[in-house]
Amino acid sequence: MFSHSPTPNHRTALFLGACTLLTLPLTLPLARAEEAPITHSYVSFGAATEIISDKGELLWKYPASTRDGWVLPSGNLLLTLSKNKDYPGGGVIEVTRDMKVVFEYKGTQAEVNTAQALANGNIVLTEAGVNPRLLEIDRSGKTIVEFPLQCQSTNAHMESRMTRKLENGNYLVPQLLDKVVREYTKEGKIVWEFKTPDEPKDSWPFTAIRIPNGNTIVNLTHGNSVVEVDPAGKIVWQCSNADLPDTFKDPCGAQWLPNGNIVVASYAAKGDAIKLFEINREKKIVWSRRDGKTHGIHEFQILDTNGKPLEGTLYR
User: Which portions of the chain are predicted below pLDDT 50?
Assistant: First the structure.
């Protein structure tokens, strides 16, 4: 019997077939990895102040209602307290996991709407009332920066929300009833603003998050949408119930993630409705959280993604 040597075409086909067999097992795990579900642990603020694991387990709870807050690098929490009998004007505290209060500021007007801990230890907060104002204070309570907010003062509850200090030293303030986001200098001068759309009605701004490309993410509460605004004040991207029917329900808190996705809290979502959801640039939900509770989530902080803690600057 005679053996025949493969022709050049046969040798090419055999080579390509072998390559396919060799590379196929290497590509399958990658495909499976891409399909792995996203997980997040987070802390929620609102009627319930809780740390929730990526499996939905309750890890820690503070027995008071809050409006804003942060898990600090130390593991302590900075909490903006809703007004109560101990804090009739609202307040800001730093509390350890065993409930020891290591810092306290008592509000002097109707409410304290927000607070942010800075890298130097100072705290930025806004007070609502007859004299709406922004304060930056140190840990001794000394005022470092103070200026009046240029906003309406007939409805204290609707004066301001999630105020944040920017890398340039200015302060970004969502002013709800005025339907405007304003950037103030430390002297109180307005250097930038974004006026929210007239429609939908009551598109009140809750968040104002300046992201690395210089744009600003704004949740529009009763407008039931999230928008990205460029420095000229133009909306360059948005997502709403027109894209995701019956998903946005008074969106309040938001967080921009390093992958460019945005997590949104639907404050008016009750029961088994979606309370938190992550959307990508294609306006697809890639993660969501239902908890069955009767109340929604006012603000939140994502703590880790797929078991890896979020590090660096937090955009929320």
Answer: 1-33
Distance CA 261, CA 255 (A): 9
Residue 142 CB partners (closer than 8 Å, separation 6+): none
Closest by CA to 126, choosing from 85, 168, 99, 158, is 158
Is the separation of the CB atoms in 20 and 41 below 8 Å?
no
Q: Which domains does the chain have, with CATH numbers?
A: 38-309 (2.130.10.10)
Q: Cα separation of 80 and 277, whole Å?
A: 23
CA distance 226 to 159: 20
pLDDT per residue as tens digits for the range 33-71: 456 799 999 999 999 999 999 999 999 999 999 999 999
Report the C-alpha gap between 53 and 17 in whole angstroms. Answer: 47
Contact between 134 and 164 under an 8 Å Cβ cutoff? The reply is no
Residue 228: HSE in the Cβ half-sphere, 13 Å Cα cutoff: 17
Query: Which amino acid appears at position 136 of this protein?
Result: E
Structure tokens at 235: 């909306």
Q: pTM for the full model?
A: 0.88
CB 219 within 8 A of CB 264: yes
Q: Where are the beta strands (DSSP E) in 25-156?
A: 40-45, 49-52, 58-62, 66-71, 77-81, 91-95, 101-106, 111-117, 123-128, 133-137, 143-148
